[in-house]
UniProtKB/TrEMBL annotation:
GO cellular component: plasma membrane
Catalytic reactions on record: Cleavage of hydrophobic, N-terminal signal or leader sequences from secreted and periplasmic proteins
Keyword set includes Oxidoreductase: no
Enzyme class: hydrolase
Organism of derivation: Paenibacillus prosopidis
Alphabetized UniProt keyword annotations: Hydrolase, Protease
Upper taxonomic lineage: Bacteria, Bacillati, Bacillota, Bacilli, Bacillales
Topology term for the membrane: Single-pass type II membrane protein
Protein name according to UniProt: Signal peptidase I
UniProt family annotation: Belongs to the peptidase S26 family.
């Protein structure tokens, strides 16, 4: 009888160890997905030709804890500015002056070289020139004629920037880092 009791205890202990291990693994995976890296899907055409609808990206959620977003970063926006998550490119940072004139974008008085842009850049409802305040970012899609961005939404608050798109994982032929 003692042998049966030992074997039962051994099985109970084994099952408990497996349950604890699986629970820890699930919790770590959820924390990793929530706070470090996540997968995002491009939902619209606003970033063509850089990104197209249906592509899947790896989003870096933690590097902005150590540094601010930079000019040219492709960011994921999830905040009150829009009802849907957006993927856009950072054009202007806090304190920058953005202007749009004759289809050209000017940053602090200098014309931006933007080889990634598709279409012409038109003004939106935000009056330009526009000076960004503290913790404000001006973002635009690369497909300028078909992009809901800061020209219509206004500046994006820093807390609304969820992370930076760093890697394309789908489709396989486009697998790799994002060129900025």
């Amino acid at each position: 009888m003692k042998t049966e009791a030992r074997q039962t205890n051994r099985w109970v202990r084994e099952i408990r160890e497996w349950v604890v291990s699986l629970a820890v693994a699930v919790i770590v995976a959820l924390l990793f997905q929530t706070y470090v890296y996540a997968q995002s899907e491009v939902q619209n055409v606003s970033m063509q030709n850089t990104l197209v609808a249906g592509q899947r990206l790896i989003e870096d959620k933690w590097s902005y804890l150590f540094h601010e977003p930079r000019h040219g970063d492709i960011v994921i926006i999830n905040g009150p500015e829009s009802d849907v998550r957006l993927v856009k490119r950072v054009i202007a940072l806090p304190g920058d002056v953005i202007d749009i004139n004759n289809g050209e974008v000017f940053l602090n008085g200098e014309r931006l070289e933007e080889p990634y842009v598709k279409g012409q850049t038109f003004e939106g409802v935000v009056e330009v020139p526009f000076t960004l305040g503290a913790e404000q970012f001006f973002v635009m899609g690369d497909n300028r004629e078909h992009s809901l961005d800061s020209r219509a939404l206004g500046p994006i608050a820093k807390p609304s920037i969820e992370g930076r798109a760093v890697f394309r994982i789908w489709p396989i032929p486009k697998f790799g880092t994002l060129s900025e």
